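User: These chains co-purify. Model them together.
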Amino acid sequence: MNQIYTIYQTLYKHYGAQGWWPTFDENIKDKTFEVALGSILTQNTTFTSVETSLQNLHVENAIDPDVILNMNIDKFKTLIKPSGYYNQKAEYILAFIKFYKALDGRTPSRDDLLHVKGIGEETADSILLYGYEQCEFKIDAYTKRLLIELGLVDAKVKYKEMKKLMQDSLTQEIKDKKELLKVYQEYHALIVAHGKKFYSKKPYGVGCFLKN
DNA sequence: AGCCAGGCTACCG
DNA sequence: CGGTAGCATGGC
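Assistant: Joint model of the three components:
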């Protein structure tokens, strides 16, 4: 068993299942769209702030592309204000909505997503992994700090390299595609749970039990 | 009171 | 290409 998969097992044993995405409303019609909204809103922000924004949107029945399009822009900005960067994020979300409606239900390619303003690698992978159930591993700041701290990559590693390391390691161990998707989804959530505890404050990794 | 959050774009050299 | 300022609110 390779090291990346061993880390997953250890984290899973320690924290248990995290749930694939902290969905605000299980009964929402368009889960994919909600995940995309959350993925954009959570950029450089805590998910608790995002939940406040999603709650604000929900009471306006605005977890819906057309409702947002027909809404006064300043009103929309007010609703997402708790997540910060509300001017930028409003622009990003409108750009995504345009893209999303044009898809008409199809699953977008990663490359197409990356051409939408406001969607970088992490947000694209977040939308694909949690919104479209695609096997795209999501790398975030915690993942990077963890891999560096464990000596598995060097400090100037790129997103692409980390993603390849995670995906190659996991596909090597897990042959069932459904299981692989589940592990991708859980693994990222576990890293966030672990990262909040040991990789938020410098120096990173103090007390991290993975360092043995 | 200050630092950090589940990033991205624009612009610099 | 790599590096960095700017974006903004909320939590601890």
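The domain at 31-131 of chain A is CATH 1.10.340.30 (Endonuclease III; domain 1).
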